[in-house]
Each structure stands twice: as structure tokens, then as C-alpha cells.
Amino acid sequence: MRLENLLKGFERMGQFQSNLKKATQIATKMGSASDRIQSATTRSITKATRTTLSVNFKSQEANQQVLDLTKQFSAAFQQAVDNIHSVAQEFERMDNELHNTFR
């Protein structure tokens, strides 16, 4: 009876299998968003050079800070995308291994 219950438990495990296709779709969409963010960080910002207003200088500093933060965010976001791909592939590999083991 215990073996039978164990086997039923393994049959139900299939309900919790990872979904590589879905994870890949999500990571691909996130990757596209990451590409757009990265693209925004490479666009040049036209700076006013003929003014001596301190507000202009402070605005340029603020723009540079936002650009730096956006670049940091973009790198971290891309790392998350890469991690999703990697983890999904590892779960898929483990699912297949378990499926083959308990066939």
C-alpha cells in the first residue's frame, strides 16, 4: 500500500512540472523591454552650452544621475532575464530527469 501511495504521489508531481515554454516567453518579453531600456541609455542628450544659469547645470547633473541609474537598472534587469532563462532550463532538465527516473 505504501508503494502504491508513493507512486500516486509521483504521478501527481507531473502537475507541478515547470513550463519552459512559458518561462521562455516571459523572459523574451522581459528581454525586449531590457533592450528598449538599454537603447534609451545610449541616446545622446543635447546640453545647453550657451547659458550660465545654475538651474541648467543642476538639470544636467540630474539628467546624468538618471542616466547612470537607468544603466544600473538595465544591467540588473538583464541579469534577472538571464537568470529566468537559466533557472527555467535547469527545472526543465530536472523535470525530464525525474520523469525518466520514475517511468
List keywords for this structure.
single chain, 103 residues, mainly alpha
Question: What can you see in these coordinates?
Answer:
The protein is mainly alpha-helical and 103 residues long. It has one domain (18-101). Helix content is 81%, strand content 0%. It has three helices and no strands. The chain has helices spanning 2-13, 20-42, 54-101. The longest helix has 48 residues, at 54-101. The model has no long low-confidence stretch (mean pLDDT 80).
Q: What is the total tally of β strands?
A: 0
Return Rg in Å: 24 Å
How many domain regions?
A: 1
Give the helix level as a range of percent: over 70%
Please state roughly what percent of the residues sit in beta strands, choosing from under 5%, 5-15%, 15-25%, 25-35%, 35-45% or over 45%. under 5%
Order of helices and strands: HHH
Give the number of helices.
3
Shape: rod-shaped
Mean pLDDT: 80
InterPro entries: TVIIS_effector_SACOL2603_fam
Protein name: Type VII secretion effector
Question: Which secondary structure elements does this structure contain, and how are they paired or packed?
Answer:
Layout: H1 2-13, H2 20-42, H3 54-101
Question: What's the quick description here?
Answer:
Helix content is 81%, strand content 0%.
